[in-house]
Write a structure and sequence with these properties.
The protein is an alpha+beta fold. It has 7 helices and 4 strands; from the N terminus they run H-H-H-H-H-H-E-E-H-E-E. It has a 4-stranded antiparallel beta sheet, with helices on one face. Strand 3 and strand 4 form a beta hairpin. It is globular and about 45 Å long. The chain starts with a helix and ends with a strand. The mean pLDDT is 90.
Length: 177
Amino acid sequence: MKGIIFSTFLELVERTFGLEICQDILDANNDEGIYTSIGNYDHLNLVKLIISLSNLTNISIQSLQRVYGKSTFINLLNSMPSLKLESKSTFEFITQVEEYIHLEIKKLYPEAKPPKFDIISNSEYEMTLDYISARCLSNVCFGLIEGCAEYFDEKINIQMHLIQADGAQVRFTLKKV
């Protein structure tokens, strides 16, 4: 997993909960908190930081992942400026994730293993897609979708259903309200 994911998470923790809590979760995991944006790191380290934050704040792991995903959307969008011009809605943007964003990531970082988005159906008012990832961070994906809808100023009802019990495959159903 790219270091930018870790650094944006730590920035969110510091901004939301303060430097002391941020340092506490790093200390609890013997983590120095030094991540380069293009470096590769084990996603389990991020999971451990989220678990530690949950233990300190009594906020569920799922809720923390969603908040993180939502707050991270704009950073990821800013890293791919051409998408701002091409996408006019949440659904348009999501279709570009697999068709463009993940392809570009693989070109830039051949060792990268981004999640897969398999779009099952897509109409003007409803989209169904599967999120497939061995990292099982579907709640981060949920938050990213929320951040995307907020960016495009759209009201979208998001339902998430496990396809695989371990969370490696999750189906999202999005309906414009």
